[in-house]
Amino acid sequence: xxxxxTGTGGYLPARVLDNDALAAAYGLDTSDEWIRERTGIRQRxxxxxxxxxxxxxxxxxxxxxxxxxxxxxxxxxxxxxxSTPDSAFPSTAARIQGALGCPGGPxxxxxxxxxxxxxxxxVAGSLMRSGAVRSALVIGTEVYSRILDWTxxxxxxxxxxxxxxxxxxxxxxxxRGLLSWHLHADGRHGDILQVEGGxxxxxxxxxxxxxxxxxxxxxxxxxxxxxxxxxxxxxLDRSEVQWLVPHQANRRIIxxxxxxxxxxxxxxxxxxxxxxxxxxxxxxxxxAEATRDGRIQRGDLVLMEAIGGGLxxxxxxxxx
Length: 320
Description:
This protein is α/β, with parallel strands linked by helices. 34% of the residues lie in helices and 25% in strands.
C-alpha cells in the first residue's frame, strides 16, 4: 500500500506584521532592509489571544479533508508535529481528533522542531505500509510567538505562527504516493537551537535560543546529504525532481538547495517571505499553497527537506 497525498490545507492567523511594524511594535534595533537581506523575510503572521496549536491545526485539517472529499470519521490516525503544544497532555493531536470528530485511532504529538513534519510523514507512511491504518492526518502547527524573546532581534524576526495539514490515504497506484523518507538526528548539537526549560525542567526561561551561524553551517551540508540519500534510494536523478518544497527558514539556505538540484527558481516553492519560519508548519503550508494554485500537478515528483533543533533533519520524496 502506498500513502497517497489526497488533501492539503493551511491556516494563517489574521494578524500580519511586516518588518517595519515588528521593529516598531517591540522597539527592536533593526530594519526591513537588514531582515530581508539576511533572511528573505518581509512579514509574518502572529496568533491572536485565543488561537492555539490545536485550533489552527483543526482549521488546516478541515481544509485537507474538504479537498479530499473525506469524512473525518474515516481518518485512521492523527499525527501532529509541534514544538508549541497546547499542554503537556492531552496531546494537541488528541484535542484536534476530538474537535474533528474522528476518534478511535491513534492520536499523538511528535517533537522534532522544524523537521517535525518530515518525521511525522515518515511515521504515518510506516503505519500505512504496515497496514495498521489506511488513512492519516499529518499536521504541523506552531505558535512560536509565545516562545520568542522579543528583545532578541537575532531570533524574534525569524519566526511566525501557522498550521498546515495533509491527508494521506492508502492506495495501490504504483506511480503515486510517498516513495521514501529519510530521518536523522545528532543530539550532540542540541544546544545550538533550543528552548530553555520546559514542563519537566528544573529551570530555564522557556524561550527560544539559537546560535544562527552554527545552525546555518550545519544546514546546507546535512540537507544536501539527506536529499542525495532520498534520490539514491529511489534510483532517481536530481534532474527528475519537479518541485522542491523546503522548510522555510532562510532564503539563502533555500536558494542553495535549489542550485544544488539544478532547479530554476520557479520550481522551488517559497513562502518564507510572507510566512517567515513557521517551523513544523512550513512545509505543509507551502504544499497547500502550491497545490491550491495549481503549480503542483498529479504525477509531479516532489522533494521535501527540513532541519531543526535537536539537531534533527530529513528528506521525503512523494509522487503526487
